[in-house]
User: Fold these one by one.
Assistant:
Number 1:
Amino acid sequence: MQFSDTGKKLQKVRVMQVVKTEDEWRKQLSPAAFEITRHADTEMAFSGQYWNLHDKGIFRCICCDNALFSSETKFDSGTGWPSFLAPMAQENVQESRDATLGMVRTAISCTLCNAHLGHVFDDGPAPTHLRYCMNSAALRFIKQA
Ligand SMILES: [Zn+2]
């Protein structure tokens, strides 16, 4: 699902996955963004640039610009990571089982380029009761004018 920078739903399109080599990603991304999105790393809590951001706008994938989250569903989770009730479009993210670090979690990645974005937990507030716990470094914020 494509969205404008102001968060307006544009159209549903079928697009090819964005596939690049490790080297190409490394060149395009900051070291932090590379480790997080391509190697499923997690940034330190309260270290990212978006956990405490309250501006209006949308968050795109740092790797491929896919529209992922909107400030409309962002909430203060107290975790130190930007947290959302839901993605902008269910089709734009995918879930997978992550059993690393001795726990079972549900990892969230970008449908378009497979970038690791964070995890989703079921302890969020109403109405979805979900908490999409994302890494700032995996996102690029587009402030609404
Ligand atoms: Zn992406």
Number 2:
Amino acid sequence: MYQSNKQKLERVVPDVELRYKAELAVEINRLKSERNAVILGHNYMEPALYYSIPDYVGDSLELSRKASQTDKDVIVFCGVRFMAETAKILNPTKTVLLPAKRAGCSLAESITAADVRVLRKKFPGVPVVTYVNTYADVKAESDICCTSGNAVAVVNSLHADTIIFLPDEYLAGNVARETGKHIIFPTRTEGGLQADTSLDYQMVGWHGRCEVHEKFTVKDIRDVRAQFPEVSILAHPECSPEVTAAADFSGSTGAMIKYVQESQAPQYLLLTECAMGDNIAAANPEKDMLRLCSVRCPHMNEITLEDTLKALQAFQYVIEVPEEIRVRAYRAVERMIAIG
Ligand code: SF4
């Protein structure tokens, strides 16, 4: 394990840490087969974890598919809570473990099932598209889910004059721009939810934001370009529409990885969780990756090798979704997966 990680990671992880983490990974992999478990690793996992214990790595959509297809008894999700919940929604007979109890998400916490019910009342008959970065009870109130990778395809598949798109304000803004729809954002007031419906609109959004991607600015892009004029800048669609418009490319984490692999630029900068730059640099040593690592996701960084080992040893933390919620959420997630 140490030798194989060293080959890939010696440029991004100090040797002393590689040795220590290789020992943990060996024990995790031993327990993984003893427990008949599969480990799914999100693209934001730190390199020593990402390259040593997951059976599959990828973005939310890719990992949802793997979760639905596995025949293992246990799914260990190295990602955040809403991802582990999605695995449980898709494959309810399996034991799903999330290694860190506090691995949440600012987007998932920005909206409740009651909020969706209020929106439905205010906009009767309008279909609800919900980003997968939400909890199961919110998915259960939705017609269909989407990821950042398939949001435009999901919206177009509905052939609806108007749609409600929740909860990411910036992803909604980016999708609205791409699909040519005008978007309005209701605001909470003492009298309830208010929206200016006298405007021409085809999308209704929500004021949720990713606490990582909202921090990147057009000024960051200008500053980096001033220092590295030929850099190729990739922005996740959870960044503001101004930032994605100023970048060279915008796409899901999976799409960003593919873009770097298939293009030739002197340097790349990813406007997303910093660990992904390390993971791409490790797999593509010929690519020069710049990083803005002062912006980190505290939730994704809760997942460590130590906690993953404890998860397998103590069978923690088990993710449960009440069956009545799961069945309704399943319809919305399954409908999304069918679109691809
Ligand atoms: S990066 Fe943003 S959207 Fe992803 S888990 Fe962290 S807070 Fe949530």
